[in-house]
Amino acid sequence: MTTTPMTPDVLAAQCPSREVLRLLTSRWAPLILIVLKNGTFRFAEIRRSIGGISERMLAETLSNLCGAGMVLRTDHGEIPPRVDYRLTPLGVEAADRLREFADWIEQSLPRFAEAGAD
């Protein structure tokens, strides 16, 4: 029996795109991608760049982003350990879109505040 691949539809409950959407709309993944848009960073550098993120959440989110093919983790096999993170081409695309969205949010803050005051 041959199965036909599902047509991508983020509104369909079983569509794999839901997992990507869940990751990209999580609390920390967009911020990590925006940081990595600026180059290759070590774990501690990423953590210092994002206010409020714990080591545990950074490690978990980086692992998820690596698993989704958006971030490349390079272990240099040195002692003490040196591990770098950088965006893959897919991660660059996601980071570009997220940066545009973040810019729109920041530029629109006065409008959000005004709308909330009504």
From TrEMBL:
InterPro entries: HTH_HxlR, WH-like_DNA-bd_sf, WH_DNA-bd_sf. Pfam families: HxlR. PROSITE patterns: HTH_HXLR (PS51118). The keyword Transcription applies. Keywords: DNA-binding, Transcription, Transcription regulation. It comes from the Bacteria. The keyword DNA-binding applies. Residues 15-113 form the HTH hxlR-type domain. This is Winged helix-turn-helix transcriptional regulator.
